Amino acid sequence: MRQGFIMRRRSGYGIAALAAGALVLSGCTEAGGGGSGGGSGGGGGEEEAGCAAPEESGRLSIATGNTTGVYYILGGGLAQVLTDNVEGIEATAEATNASAENIRFVCAGDSDIGFTLADTAADAVNGAASFEDAAQPVQALARIYSNYTQVFVRADAGIESITDMAGKRVSTGSPNSGTEVIALRLLEANDLTPDDIEQQSLGLPESVQGMKDGTIDALVWSGGLPTGGITDLVTSLGTDVTALPLTDELAFLQETYGEAYTEGSIPADAYGLDEDIPTVVVPNLLVVSDAMSEDLAYEITKAIFENLDTLATVHPEAENISLDTATETEPVEVHPGAQRYFDEQG
């Protein structure tokens, strides 16, 4: 096994890098070389340029998420798989603020692969919501596992629904994260705005610590099951923390923002809860620049799907990555190199 991969944190995430050797990647191009170049367009106004072309120097940067989340854990495993199975590649997993930030990193050429929620990716290619200033025509390597919206409240906070969050101290996730997107939409579904709560824009480690300290009343998290940070929270606080069911928000989310949102539940055994918790589920995607070469995208996709057993030893959510759903990425286009691999699989 080649031990070439590194897990590190971006300085933009607020923490010094754990390893030297930053990638040197090119700036934005006028048209993407690996795909459509213009993306799917949308509400961004002027026609957007394609994403930056990765340098493809043999070093790959994977933008993941908070250090106690599944993106980061699985991203480290992915980095090792690519280092071991793609000739000439040394992959690095980096902690970031996740979805929206990852998409911007990928399209700017600062990262090569990014984990993202499908709803955020749809906004990006359509030039909607936080991407109204400029659409980001990333393409998908694959749909992977799904994220579960996890809302936990302190038992003494008097919060029994999202509506009860008015006037409360609520962590809505890291800035530019998929968690933040969903958290703000949950508020909107209940006729609340960020001004109606004491909004705390915290990463998961800081949110969990705030819940333990009693400096915040509730947190919203979107992640796979189980998420290490949430396990820590429930183990530490026991009956002093409660999972909030989401039963009334799904219809609004689907009608307003699309079918990326589906019904699901957090199994009781995920965190040792008393019962399953109804919630909202959103798929995750792995995205790359539309200018990534077809051959590289093919090799990366092949390595992922031929090593799912290895990834499942890193985190069990890898067991939910399947060829059956891999191309269900709309409105994000599947990269031609990834599509070539899927076509070969029939």
Just name the CATH architecture of the largest domain.
3-Layer(aba) Sandwich
Helix count? 11
Task: Indicate the CATH class of the largest domain.
Answer: Alpha Beta
Helix content: 25-40%
The outline comes out as: globular
Judged by helices, strands and strand pairing, the structural class is: alpha/beta
CATH superfamily of the largest domain: Periplasmic binding protein-like II
N-to-C terminal Cα separation, in Å? Answer: 30 Å
- Count of β-strands: 11
The proportion of strand residues reads: 15-25%
Largest sheet: 11 strands, mixed
Classify the fold: give the CATH topology of the largest domain: D-Maltodextrin-Binding Protein, domain 2
Based on CA atoms alone, the radius of gyration comes out at 19 Å
Count of distinct structural domains = 2
Order of helices and strands: EEHEHEHEEHEHEHEHEHEHHH
Which consecutive residue ranges, at least 5 long each, have pLDDT under 50? Answer: 11-48
- Average pLDDT taken over every residue: 89
Structure characterization notes:
The chain folds into 2 domains: 6-144 and 285-344, Periplasmic binding protein-like II (D-Maltodextrin-Binding Protein, domain 2, 3-Layer(aba) Sandwich); 147-282, D-Maltodextrin-Binding Protein, domain 2 (3-Layer(aba) Sandwich). The chain is 31% helix and 20% strand. The chain has 11 helices and 11 strands. The protein has helices at residues 70-85, 99-108, 118-126, 178-189, 204-213, 228-237, 250-257, 268-271, 294-305, 308-314, 336-344; strands at 6-9, 59-63, 90-95, 113-117, 139-154, 169-171, 198-200, 218-223, 241-243, 262-266, 277-288. Strands 1, 2, 3, 4, 5, 6, 7, 8, 9, 10 and 11 form an 11-stranded mixed β-sheet that branches. The radius of gyration is 19 Å and the shape is globular.
